[in-house]
Amino acid sequence: MPDTPAQARLLLGAAAAGLIHAGFSLYWALGGRRLLPTVGQWAVTAAREAPVTAGLVLVAVAAVKCVVVAVPLLAASRPLPRPGAWRAFAWLAAVVLTGYGALNSIVAWLVLGGALRPEGGFDRQAMIGHAYLWDPLFLVWGLLLGAGLLAGGRGRRGRARV
C-alpha cells in the first residue's frame, strides 16, 4: 500500500501517463497508424517498409514503458527484495522522463515558434506531436512519478522518527 493517499494518486497519475505512451507503442506495433506521423516521418517509413522489425521494436518499447510504470506501483504496494535498488530505478526513471520530456518539448516549441531553425528544415506534423503531445506526456509522467516518490519518501522518514 502506498504510504499516503497523495502518493497513491501521484503514482496512479504517473502510471496513466506511462500507459498512454505504452498503449500507443503497442497499437503501432500491431499495425495501427493513427498519430504515427506525429512521431516523425521516419516512423511512418519504418512501419511501411519494415513492418515486422518496426513492430518488434515497438513491442520492446511498450514493454520497457510498462516496466517503468509497474516498478514504482509494485514497490509502493508490497515489499520487494532490494527495495533501495527498486527505488533508485524509479528515481532514475523520474529524472530521465522529466529531463527528456522538458528538453524535447522546449526544443520543439522553439522550432515551431521560429526561434530555432534546423538546417535541413523540419517535419511540422512531428514537431507539433513532440511539442504538444508526446514529450509533454513524458514530462508529466516524470513529474508525477518524482512527486509520488517524494510523497512516499516523506512517509517513510516520518515513520522512522516515531
Overview of the molecule:
This protein has helices at residues 5-29, 41-49, 51-77, 83-113, 124-161. With 162 residues, the protein is mainly α. It is globular. Residues 157-162 have low confidence and may be disordered.
Low-confidence stretches: 157-162
Largest sheet: none
Tally of helical runs: 5
What's the mean pLDDT score?
Answer: 92
**Total strand segments:** 0
The portion of residues forming beta strands comes to under 5%
Secondary-structure-based class equals: mainly alpha
Share of helix among residues? Answer: over 70%
Describe this structure in a few short sentences.
The protein is mostly helical. The chain has helices at residues 5-29, 41-49, 51-77, 83-113, 124-161. Helix content is 80%, strand content 0%.
Task: Furnish the topology, listing elements before pairings.
Layout: H1 5-29, H2 41-49, H3 51-77, H4 83-113, H5 124-161
Helix pairs in contact: 1-3, 1-5, 2-3, 3-4, 4-5
List key phrases describing it.
about 160 residues; about 0% strand
